[in-house]
């Protein structure tokens, strides 16, 4: 900064200051124009004159000359190649138009293996797709490899038109810029690399779900060029398909990765393709904790109802209904994780069988309580009144017979009335029917009464009309002891239900074994 004081200046001094100011302004203007001109020439290949002036920007420095100490040949070869490509049709025509087909070799690097969805039958990958071929038109005189990145150069050169045949969605990563790499060697060898995120379809067979193995494929193919124009091969390395060692899946384990190449026949010709098969083994831990163990506990919980007293109807019914509803809810949730398939999976077989066994425990109590109601339930009071009326009629009938001269002994009469009417009120012990007692002790008295022509008095019509079907069934076959039958069914169920579930479990895990790794 030039400080000008307010002191008076002479005429000569004033002229000197004016001349100095004019010289400074002129020098600044000349320097700015020179820098703008240099920048424009470096950014526009069409303005480059001789190879001696084509230098990288980082070569600009101090010295007697603007380009002293820089590698002019390397940078000029890059710019000359770009200048030639800009005015040609290299990007539209494959390298070998006539003669042998263009040979493209590929390599895959699996950067991440994301979720595998059974409901939509697809999976997600993030990969580095590397392609290599030779293009004689891209030979240059540079001493090293020319490297470009970004999408602008891709419009100037030919690249294979590969696509993924089973892809639902393909995205090129764009942060911080397009993830593309293009390398050109002096002999014309080209390496093209891109970073992609893929959503690929994976058709699954779920008959053994969740003890299943799946094979998900990735298929790369040329869209326009048949086998006579372009061939695809894997890189001639030990691992043409690489995967990061830290890649893991929450529900699967990668058993093996297979790769192969083949030809697909279409109506438009035969096209070469490359394919990768990911062999996956499902991890069973999630379904053991969320399905098999809870359902087994619910089935075992339903067995408790057969140990509860028959008369405790609210407890046994609530226990059975609760377990049935819990299993139905669990089966519905598991089914929602799968697509709407027409066949039953392994876990469907398990859940349906568990529901049947829980329902069988509930049905068992329905039968038991129905039998129990004959002796101790809702028909007991009406049956006692009916037996009392019958006893009174029997006594009246005996009196009439005595008056007519046919007299039965008092012992036979009392034994028949007492043991014939009150045997049903005895308790069943150890599953032994009270009918044995009724048959053995009362049979003699009955035979004596029958020999004398005495019969059991019949109920009047108005009395039979109020009897239910269960009471009529009871009265038609008094030799059955329904309370003992109900208790025997309960005792049998305590053994049968757990045994049936154990047998089913053995058969189930024999048919659907836990999958193992091939390695």
Give a description of the structure:
There is one protein chain. The protein has 519 residues and is of the alpha+beta class. Helices cover 42% and strands 21% of the residues. The strands form 2 sheets. Strands 1, 2, 3, 5, 6, 7, 9 and 10 form an 8-stranded mixed beta sheet that branches. The chain has a 4-stranded antiparallel beta sheet with strand order 4-8-12-11, with no helix packed on it. Helix 3 runs antiparallel to helix 4, helix 3 packs parallel to helix 5 and helix 7 packs antiparallel against helix 8 (435-451). The chain is rod-shaped, with a radius of gyration of 49 Å. The model is unreliable at 1-11, 34-72, 420-427 and 429-469 (pLDDT under 50).
**Portion in beta strands:** 15-25%
Q: Order of SSEs, N→C?
A: HHEEEEEEEEEEEEHHHHHHHHH
What share of residues is helical?
40-55%
Q: In angstroms, what separates the terminal alpha carbons?
A: 80 Å
Basic shape: rod-shaped
Uncertain residue segments: 1-11, 34-72, 420-427, 429-469
Class inferred from helices and paired strands? alpha+beta
What is the average per-residue confidence, as pLDDT, rounded to a whole number?
Answer: 75
Biggest sheet details: 8 strands, mixed
- Rounded radius of gyration (Å): 49 Å
Helix segment tally: 11
The quaternary state of the protein chains shown equals: single chain
DSSP strand tally? 12
């Amino acid at each position: 900064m030039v400080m000008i004081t307010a002191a008076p200046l002479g005429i000569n001094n004033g002229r000197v200051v004016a001349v100095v100011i004019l010289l400074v302004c002129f020098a600044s203007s000349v320097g700015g124009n020179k820098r703008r001109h240099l920048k424009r020439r470096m950014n526009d290949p069409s303005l480059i004159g001789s190879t001696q002036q084509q230098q990288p920007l980082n070569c600009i420095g101090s010295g007697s000359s603007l380009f002293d100490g820089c590698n002019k040949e390397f940078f000029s070869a890059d710019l000359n190649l770009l200048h030639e490509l800009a005015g040609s049709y290299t990007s539209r025509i494959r390298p070998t138009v006539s003669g042998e087909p263009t040979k493209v070799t590929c390599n895959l690097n699996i950067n991440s293996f994301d979720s595998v969805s059974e409901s939509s039958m697809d999976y997600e990958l993030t990969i580095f797709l590397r392609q290599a071929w030779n293009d004689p038109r891209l030979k240059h005189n540079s001493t090293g490899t020319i490297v470009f990145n970004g999408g602008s150069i891709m419009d100037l050169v030919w690249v294979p038109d590969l696509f993924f045949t089973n892809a639902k969605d393909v995205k090129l990563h764009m942060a911080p810029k397009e993830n593309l790499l293009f390398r050109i060697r002096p002999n014309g060898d080209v390496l093209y690399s891109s970073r992609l995120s893929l959503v690929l379809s994976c058709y699954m067979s779920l008959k053994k779900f969740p003890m299943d193995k799946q094979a998900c494929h990735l298929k790369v193919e040329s869209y326009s060029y048949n086998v006579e124009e372009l061939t695809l091969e894997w890189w001639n390395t030990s691992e043409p398909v690489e995967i990061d060692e830290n890649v893991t899946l929450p529900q699967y384990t990668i058993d093996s990765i297979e790769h192969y190449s083949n030809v697909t026949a279409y109506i438009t010709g035969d096209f070469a393709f490359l394919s990768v098969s990911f062999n996956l083994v499902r991890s069973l831990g999630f379904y053991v904790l969320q399905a098999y163990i809870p359902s087994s506990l619910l089935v075992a919980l339903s067995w408790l109802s057969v140990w509860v007293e028959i008369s405790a109807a609210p407890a046994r019914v609530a226990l059975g209904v609760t377990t049935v509803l819990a299993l139905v809810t669990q089966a519905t949730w598991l089914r929602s994780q799968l697509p709407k398939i027409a066949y039953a999976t392994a876990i469907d077989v398990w859940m349906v069988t568990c529901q049947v066994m829980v329902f069988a425990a509930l049905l068992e109590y329905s039968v038991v309580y129905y039998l129990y109601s004959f002796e101790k339930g809702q028909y007991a009071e009406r049956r006692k009144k009916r037996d009392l009326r019958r006893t009174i009629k029997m006594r009246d009938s005996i009196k009439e017979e005595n008056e007519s001269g046919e007299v039965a002994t008092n012992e036979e009469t009392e034994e028949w009335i007492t043991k014939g009417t009150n045997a049903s009120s005895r308790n069943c012990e150890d599953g032994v029917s009270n009918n044995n007692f009724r048959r053995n002790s009362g049979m003699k008295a009955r035979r004596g009464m029958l020999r004398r022509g005495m019969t059991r008095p019949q109920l009047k019509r108005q009395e039979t009309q109020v009897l239910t079907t269960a009471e009529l069934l009871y009265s038609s076959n008094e030799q059955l002891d329904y309370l003992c039958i109900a208790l025997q069914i309960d005792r049998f169920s305590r053994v049968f239900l757990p045994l049936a579930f154990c047998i089913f479990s053995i058969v189930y895990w024999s048919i659907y074994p836990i999958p193992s790794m091939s390695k």
